[in-house]
Amino acid sequence: MPSFPPTSPTLSPASFSNPSKDAETPARDAPAPSDIPAWLPPALHVFAFRDYRRQWVGAFASSIGSWMQQVAQAWLILELTASPFYLGLDAFLGMAPMLGLSLAGGAVADRIDRRKLLLASQAVQLSSALTLAILVGTRALQGMLLVYAILGLSFLTGMAQAMSGPAYMALLPNLAPKPFVGQAIAGNAMQFNLARVVGPMLAGLVMARFGATACFALNALSFLAVMAALATIHPPPQVSAETAQSWTQEVLVGMRYVFGDPLRRRLCILAALTTGLGIAVPTLLPQYAKAVWRGDEVLFSRLAACSGLGAVAGALVVAAVAKKAPSLPLVFGAQAALGLCMALLAVTGWLWLACLWLFAGGALLVAAYALVTTCFQQSVADDMRGRSVSLYMVCFRGGMAVGGLLAGTAAQWWSVPATFGLTGLALVAVGAWAALDGRPMTPPALGQTAD
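RE: above sequence
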């Protein structure tokens, strides 16, 4: 299943690797202007580089397959259990490994070949999807036994993603010259959000005609695309991490740096609250389509595509706004507006209006995620960036994991609309609290080093 949102922040001013190591890493030479086709728009110049282009295509194909499985898997769990709690539990198990393994994955990514680590991760995820396709297609397991198998495979997939996520984030900036790293990161976020539109729409069509098994099998095949890309790219030689401190000591220094500073600590709290409350809609959307609109898997896939279209729009808007440093009031406004959309989604009685709120909510969800992440990046000194971002992602993804489980539990006890309303109002309150708090939240200048 795909990460939600993409694990690499969309607007990073620097790569995730330790900048002190970056100086030692062989960098690609920037091409002469004549090396870039004249017909290629400036915003897409990064696609002139073969390695990045291959990896983008492979990742896009894999993301489409992952979104197809996410839609089919959520609908299958709902049909087997008729319980939103299991939707939340599935989301929790898919994201929980990030809490314990992301820091370890970052350390591993600095010490072994990142391509080999990524290939191993893709092989595990391919095996998981193929196993699920076989279990469902052959009816080897049924009822709650199948549900438990799905939950176990979600946890296995989450472990593979947690271990390989830092390696992918560290590899991506090495697929293009340094002047194009910003475009490379933005392009990665764009392929993920485009897949959020294409994947659910294809899933609805495939499920209606061939069933969920076909979605799982197609996802398994999609991993071959990214594995082929990884096998044929040639990034610069990787420089292994060399440090006088142990990994544990480095993590402790990073924790003191992040959580000992009021600004960075508050941004981590805001990230956890935003993801924890905002994840309610993506997690409970299958139950919303079925219980509120009496819809089937086709309607669910269309509602998911509406949210995906909004996410693409939100990513484009934030990319334009980010040409100027994103101000903190934009973060607070995006959080409050997202909460309002969730509350309105809970009370609307027209399907077309629900689609509109899902579109707006998808845009605001991505905007809030990206703006909080970018503000955090701007508050971090260059020589602490790698450790700081790893800790931030624990808060970011940890909020998702816990929020998904709590949303499923709340919907089980009350209802999906009530859960949307409560989490939406809570998100409005979070935005108001952050905006009205009198303590200064001014990020330091980029490039500042740690004391």
